[in-house]
Write a structure and sequence with these properties.
Layout lengths: L1 E7 L6 H14 L4 E5 L5 H5 L14 E4 L5 E4 L7 H8 L5 E5 L5 H7 L3 E6 L5 H15 L8 E4 L7 H15 L11
Helix pairs in contact: 5-6
Amino acid sequence: MKTIALMSTDPKTGKTTVAVNLAFGLMKAGHKVLIWNLSKDDFLYRWLDINKESLTGDNAIHTITNRMGFDVLVGGEFSNNLKEYISQISTDYDYLLLDTDTGPESLNAAKLADIVIVCTDLSPEDPENLAVLDRKLQDMTSGQAGINLVVPCKIKVGEWENNTKQLIDIADRIGYEKIADLIPE
């Protein structure tokens, strides 16, 4: 099973939208996919029209198939046993997408991931914040892992010069090969 952590340094950068679209694309390609919401917000559940409260009254873990056709993990408290739970489900899915929060818990999730995707809205502080995040991930994994892909999700229309400057600054700090190509070949 491949584990993909979706992260951001700021809330509301499009991370959950990327997670849902990635899950749907992988599912349509024939893969069995599970999204796990590790975020404190309910954007994923609202995106997929899932009434979390009706499932988690006992704080039990529920895996449900949503209307788009892939599975979503709902409920439970996982921060202390994330690695153990991932190993338990590793044979059931081809991909596990971890929709993380912006807090320190997301670093623990990213440490366990095969691929780390970070979403950005190209805010002025993002080049430095993403470079710091990349260094933290590398430090936590003894240089074995860092950011694999940066996806600019919210481009400011009419600010192309500034968008380009921010994207180049990010690429200069963490590597041009890590910036998502927005124009498919």
